[in-house]
Design goal:
Protein name: SEC14-like protein 1 isoform X2
Organism: Apteryx mantelli (North Island brown kiwi)
InterPro entries: CRAL-TRIO_dom, CRAL-TRIO_dom_sf, CRAL/TRIO_N_dom, CRAL/TRIO_N_dom_sf, GOLD_dom, GOLD_dom_sf, PRELI/MSF1_dom, SEC14/CRAL-TRIO_domain
Radius of gyration: 31 Å
Strand order of the largest sheet: 1-2-3-4-5-6
Length: 681
């Protein structure tokens, strides 16, 4: 708790652009009385230095402890700056460090107290800012003009000194904008005129675009969306999901950018590997699914969300698994989700407001112990796992009707695999409860309630029924079919180890051919190289130690360049080495100058030794620890194209299905390659 403060030092520049003030603050710490008695103090003192630069529109706040500085070192830094993508926003960054050398044997207690105080201070800071903002509004101050250099005329400048001190005003906008308060102007100051930023309509961040396609977002949420999209543009050029899709992953992780980025990258890699973007156009469901899968789309709910009806109680899950296998069912559910994304876009246009999720109505009439057949439940859990990972925040509401007595057993098996946020969207009705108050009519218009639920609307969803046993297939047939379905991909996976790169050989007969590549770094950081040799390397030996060819669950590892070969004599490098970080997607091409043998190499990237003046960043240390056993993973595709067929590196990769057709915004632009190569992330 703040008790008092004394000004230790203060500086103001002549033009009043710079204002630095240093204070010694007296604080009362909420600590156990015994600890205070042992320490021999009732209060602790901190030194805080505030540096306001009106010209650069920044405010830096630094604080460190004076009390017990020989035992405990606390440093805190706060920074207020103008957001780089929208100058009407304030960007706030805060960091702190705690180093406890010794504290009378109470080191762990002090650490817990410090963390508690730090957390509560962050929350309290927002309240304080809101308090002063409200005070300004009560005084009738809703706008503070930006700082401009003093006017040359002293007479004019002397009459303009009745301005309110700017320091408190700088602190206000950040939380004010976060809380959505109606500020007309941010309280930062600058001497330069406003310049166009990324927050223009061209960048799809204007208010109309947000309201029309994204819905209500706080400035903090908009900022998270911009930052994640910018990162994707830098690392996944030409394949950027739409803002609506990025937003789903951010919402699924409460707008934690690092967590959202991780699951989004994993999902994009998964979509690419299994060509999910093309599933609606290239995959035709087997006739058994069309006849016996009791589910289908049926109009929309009262909120405009697409409505999917599933008559699970009438569906022979055991028969479907025995006739089709787990993977065919999974692929069918994926096609349903892809259709759901498409219908959300259509309904957004029809209703003129953002619709990013659908409603699912599940009728359990007829559910019995047959539905609890273990392989069927296993298939259901697998489907839930895949959908949860790749279609977050797409389920707006789940209405479960006519739940029988056996339902709690199924719910006990399934619920642990369902995300907490998703579970909150479940509404469960037993018997005919759905017909009463708070039932189906609260969410679906009477005119479209299906006939089998007592409504007047004819529902074209198949009625299901038992799958004839004549359609059942043997376990071996189903296993082969599952393998075929889930390995139908043009991409290959490879593992890269420290000291064991993965290499791919490409033989070129005609000079001026074009080698194209498209790969994703799924784990770790790698270095990508391209080499040329006039002689063919020896095929990898399948020796017992696996020194040249390693097979692992994550993919193969093949080494072609013999250890006795010398760079510059036996083979040469034809492209500069490219360092690729985890999560990056890389596409590129190389126009060959000579016939011969070209080797594409993915090599483990060693973390560089820190410079003498810089310590390694915490992020780098954590990243190095996360690469278990010095192992990286890549997913790649290569293709050789004749020079006459080459139309630029991005267009040449159309045949590799590397784009996200259903999710991509129209951001891709192809350019003619005038140099020997083109590499793009």
């Amino acid at each position: 708790m703040f008790v008092a403060s004394d000004t230790v030092n203060e500086y103001k520049s002549e033009d009043e652009a710079i204002h630095v003030i240093e204070r010694r603050c007296k604080l009362d710490i909420d600590a156990p009385r015994l600890l205070k008695k042992i320490a021999g103090v009732d209060y602790v003192y901190f030194v805080q230095k505030n540096s306001l630069n009106r010209r650069e529109r920044t405010l830096h706040i630094e604080a460190y402890n004076e009390t017990f500085s020989n035992r405990v070192i606390i440093n805190e830094h706060c920074c207020y700056t103008v957001h780089p993508d929208n100058e009407d926003w304030t960007c706030f960054e805060q960091s702190a460090s705690l180093d406890i050398k010794s504290f009378f044997g109470f080191e762990s207690t002090v650490e817990k107290i410090a963390m508690k105080q730090y957390t509560s201070n962050i929350k309290k800071g927002k309240e304080i800012i809101e308090y002063y903002l409200k005070q300004l509004e009560e005084e009738g101050i809703t706008f503070v003009p930006r700082w401009t250099p003093p006017v040359a005329c002293k007479l004019e400048s002397s009459t303009s000194h009745t301005r309110r001190p700017v320091s408190p005003a700088i602190n206000i906008p950040e939380s004010a904008t976060k809380e959505g308060l109606n500020n007309k102007e941010i309280l930062n100051t600058s001497s330069s005129p406003a310049e166009p930023t990324a927050g223009t309509p061209d960048d799809k961040l204007d208010a109309d675009y947000i309201k029309r396609y994204l819905g209500d977002l706080t400035p903090m949420q908009e900022s998270c969306l911009i930052r994640l999209r910018k990162w994707l543009q830098e690392t996944h050029k030409g394949k950027i999901p739409k803002d609506e899709h990025i937003l789903r992953f951010l919402r699924a992780r409460d707008f934690n950018i690092d967590k959202a980025r991780e699951i989004l990258c994993q999902s994009l890699t998964w979509r690419k590997q299994h060509q999910v973007d093309y599933i609606l156009d290239t995959w035709n469901p087997p006739q058994v699914l069309q006849d016996y899968y009791a589910g289908g789309w049926h109009h929309h709910d009262k909120d405009g969300r697409p409505l999917y009806v599933l008559r699970l109680g009438q569906m022979d899950t055991k028969g479907l698994v025995r006739a089709l296998g787990e993977e065919a069912l999974l692929r069918y559910v994926l096609s349903i989700n892809e259709e759901g994304l498409r219908r959300c876009e259509e309904n957004t246009k029809v209703f003129g407001r953002p619709i990013s999720a659908w409603t699912c109505l599940v009728d359990l009439e007829g559910l019995n112990m047959r539905h609890l057949w273990r392989p069927g439940v296993k298939a259901l859990l697998r489907i839930i796992e895949v959908v949860e990972a790749n279609y977050p925040e797409t389920l707006g509401r789940l209405l479960i009707l006519r739940a029988p007595r056996v339902f709690p057993v199924l719910w006990t098996l399934v619920s642990p695999f369902i995300d907490d946020n998703t579970r909150k969207k479940f509404l469960i009705y037993a018997g005919n409860d759905y017909q009463g108050p708070g039932g189906l009519l609260d969410y679906i218009d009477k005119e479209i309630i299906p006939d089998f639920l007592g409504g007047e609307c004819m529902c074209e969803v198949p009625e299901g029924g038992l799958v004839p046993k004549s359609l059942y297939r043997t376990a071996e047939e189903l296993e082969n079919e599952d393998i075929k379905l889930w390995t139908e991909t043009i991409y290959q996976s490879a593992s890269v180890f420290k000291g064991a790169p993965h290499e791919v050989l490409i033989q070129i007969v005609d000079a001026s051919s074009v080698i194209t590549w498209d790969f994703d770094v799924c784990k770790g950081d790698i270095v990508f190289n391209i080499f040329h040799s006039k002689r063919a390397p020896q095929p990898p030996k399948k020796d017992s130690l696996g020194a040249h060819s390693i097979t692992s669950p994550g993919g193969n590892n093949v080494q072609l360049i013999d250890k006795v070969w010398q760079l510059g004599r036996d083979y040469s490098m034809v492209e500069s080495a490219l360092i690729c970080k985890e999560g990056e997607s890389v596409q590129g091409s190389h126009v060959t100058r000579w016939p011969g043998f070209y080797i594409l190499q993915w090599k483990f990237h060693n973390m560089p030794a820190c410079a003498t003046t810089n310590l390694p960043r915490v992020d780098d240390v954590l990243a190095s620890l996360q690469v278990s056993s010095h192992k990286c993973k890549v997913m790649y595709y290569t293709e050789v194209i004749g020079s006459e067929d080459f139309r630029g590196s991005m267009t040449s990769l159309e045949s590799s299905h590397s784009g996200f057709s259903q999710l991509s915004a129209a951001t891709t632009s192809s350019s003619q390659s005038h140099s020997s190569s083109m590499i793009s992330r």
